[in-house]
Automatic annotation (TrEMBL):
Keywords: DNA recombination, DNA-binding, Plasmid, Transposable element, Transposition. The keyword DNA-binding applies. Residues 38-60 are annotated as: Disordered. Required for the transposition of the insertion element. Residues 38-48 have a biased composition (Basic and acidic residues). It holds the Pfam family Transposase_mut. It comes from Streptomyces cynarae. Belongs to the transposase mutator family. InterPro entries: Transposase_mutator. Residues 51-60 have a biased composition (Polar residues). This is Mutator family transposase.
Amino acid sequence: MLVERARSEGLQLTGQGGLLQQLTKRVLESALEGEITDHLGYEKHDPAGKNNGNSRNGTRAKTVLTDVGPVEVKVPRDTAGSFEPQIVKKRQRRLTGVDEMVLSLSAKGLTHGEISAHLAEVYGAEVSKQTVSTITDKVMEGMAEWQNRPLDRVYPVLFVDAINVKIRDGKVANRPVYVVMAVTVDGTRDILGIWAGDGGEGAKYWLHVFTELKNRGLDDVLMLVCDGLKGLPEAVETVWPRTIVQTCVVHLLRNSFRYAARQDWDKVAGALKPIYTAPSEDAATERFLEFQESWGRKYPAIVKLWSDAWAEFVPFLSFDVEIRKVICSTNAIESVNARIRRSVRARGHFPNEAAALKCIYMALMSLDPTGKGRKRWTMRWKAPLNAFQIAFEGRLTPSNN
């Protein structure tokens, strides 16, 4: 096999005649053979195809440019001339689908070994884990460019959340990876970056992240929604003094139930609802005092939880219902996190921080392949953005000049 030849004969990995080119040729020709079999309806040399009106008619050589260099493939033909190959289309001279296939499988959470096994099973091509790693490592250049790209001058909302990943650094331990997602003035979603924390996230850590975003051109943020992350409000105030920090109400409720007995969940939920649905901060304060009087003795931890988060809880109460609906929780980023978690869980743990960030980056780049999600986002944010224009007059502009 090719891998054995590489070991015994010293076959080079890249360049003309290298291992990657030969593997690409084998994968493409196997796929093309599968396509013409589907088109004709019978396997090669199968008697069932005799006198059926159409048959194989040899091959024609074609050179396509790929990410591993020019590759010559033999494209099968049929006597009727009706075969239209898809993986290497007629007149197509540039092909990146092989690498994209590997990257797509990796983004879905498959390990390098699983990708190698998949290619062997489906295409009969022996692609080593090292070769897969070589292909996926190419995304790191794109990741560095993406992480440092210029940003818009202003964003209506930033959502900040964290994903825990297992990284083996001497021993396997959980490490937070933070994701910052923005809603643009056009109502689209934009992931601004990912950062691996060391467990000591505080004002100093967040100051570093937000300063980086400001250095990339982000001058103003209207509102920032988070899950009560330690030290975050202080860092926001240092970088963007006018930004309103809003804690996630959904997370506040979830954390409240952790301190309550299961049989009291419905009652506690009913008692808390008038607080976060109050028409004003004063009304919310009155409802909170009522909750404290009714439940404070039994669940003092819930009272303390809401008291500690009060300054970051109340801002959304000053806005109309359209703004309230989109800033009262980090739900807007949850679908992104769910996609990341699927990829992370499939890997188990990572050998280092770079491997974890690469996996998460590829998962992010594979979001919304059809573009339907982008359309839903834009429609969902039309009303809130109009409300933001009024509430933050003069700060939110229709374009980023």
